[in-house]
Protein: 7316_t:CDS:1
Amino acid sequence: MSSTVTPLIHTSILENSSVKTSPETIHETKVSIKNSTLILRKILILLILTSIQMQMPRVLKESKMPNTKVSRLFHYGGLAIGLGAGALSESIRRATGVSDAKNRLVNKLSRMRGAALKLGQMLSIQDPLEKLILKVQDSANYMPNWQMEKIMLAELGQNWRENFSYFDSTPIAAASIGQVHSAELASNKMKLAIKVQYPGIVASIDSDLDNLRTLIKVSNLLPRGLYLDNTIKVARKELLWETDYIREAECVEKFQTLLKNDKNFVVPQVVKELSTKMVLVCERMMGEPLTHAVVYDQELRDQIELIDFGASRSFDNTFIDHYLKILKSAAKSDREGCAYYSEQIGFLTGYESEVMKNAHVDSILTLGEPFTTPIYDFSKQTITNRVRNLIPTMLKYRLTPPPDETYSLHRKLSGAFLLCAKLGSRVRCRKLLEEVIGEI
Structure:
């Protein structure tokens, strides 16, 4: 039997954001090897920024999605050339306090979506550029109506609209892999959220990731400790999962079973007969982001709706057992236990220097602090800054990439941690852990 990670909670952690970067002086008008690092740095920043935004985009723009390898390669090439050609004028704009580099990058990447945003999301876990990321202005493109209609026709047939008493052709949300339309089921008037996948996403995954690998490696920007090739391997696997809407529908039903007796969670109903690999039809959840919940009474705040099950996954028992033993060791401030089980699970090889081993164990003990006390006050946490200070050492001295399972798991855990910090939550973390593993 395997364990399952929870889906994305209906929440928004980053709001009203923008980008600030340190000014650089441009000495040449020509695109050159000298300024290629600057160009790739901007590309990486926006890959990360666009991907970590969880809030519904404020402005949606219609734009044909590039759905062939040639058209997507054109956009990657145009991105680098456009940034280089605009370098001189950009330095002038900086002098006057006006910058459009962010807009150029967001506009281009919002058309690419798919693998570009997934890789940026994964790199943001241990992002050496994090100090440059203060806020992000969200932007998103959606397919023109004719492109959306073509997909719906191919997936649901000539008379697909007859299944709905209402279907809004303008999407209510657009993300990296698909867009969401509101509708109403003709048979029972159920309010629906229909996710329609962009064309060519699956076919472009390999070429997109290869193009991104080339861009990043040419820049020589990322440290060796990020293990780019392994990150890309995991990104490819997760992208294939997330582009399979039949798999996502099965995950929704799995969580319905797991949470059927829990009154605190609501899981949407799937309309299976209208769902395919590229179209997912679900009951629409009408709640508010969790970050807005602080103004509501407790009874309303106790009800949480779960959406977006595409990134759900299972873990084998061996991984879960070792991971829980790491958490238990951290809760007991057991340095030897943290190191031993880190080797068992694959964080360490056993041949690391003392500097690396100590930094790794220090990071685990720091992250485990919420489990060391009966009630942990997230509003007073200093964990984020302390772990951030350890990251350069771990990137420099690590000998192996982290276990593949932890890429997605740690994104979920970090999201929950940041949410608790934003809400100023006081949580009985130790009690929750003991309910799973027994007395610490």
About this structure: Residues 316-437 form one domain.
